[in-house]
Sequence to fold (196 residues):
Amino acid sequence: MLFRKPSAIPKEVSDAAVTEWYSSLSDQDRTRLARYLNAADVSSAYSFLSSVASAALSDENYGFAASVCEECLRGACSGTETFRMTESLIEAYIGMKRYADARSLCENNLRLFPSVRDAILEANNGSLPGTIACRNRYFDIVVGVESGYDEAFALLDRFFEMGLIDAEDLAYRKQSLKIRRLQRSFDGVFTYSYKD
Fold:
């Protein structure tokens, strides 16, 4: 731009070695980034982008969080880093109502899960975290957005086979799904629309 003033690169950006990415940001995105710099982990480029994306998600700044996640995934990430960053990107896409994109990422992460399962268990003291976006959000999309109840039952079986839910959780979720399906059926039967 003709009138754009050269801006100094923040120390956190330099420390994390993401100056090239920072230089490509618009002024508006640099302003957004400035809100999250104090909490940023500068130990590596991945850690920096991951912490910024997490802060942006907490702030419900889904568009910026998505762009940060996408930038991170363009770089060299380990399998576990790819899985974790994709989890954040799924949440950002859900917030942006980009359900088809989120669904696709859920499927990708489910394929990746067996190779990162041990690392995830190790990082969480031998148990799976309560929130796994590729499991939870996939189910949310299939049931809440697409009303695909038959597919949802198949998904629950798949999650059980992969070790993402236990037998008790499987039974509970299937029962809840049956009740929801029944409620939706009754809602359709008992909904009255006045017509002239």
The chain has two domains: 10-76, 102-179.
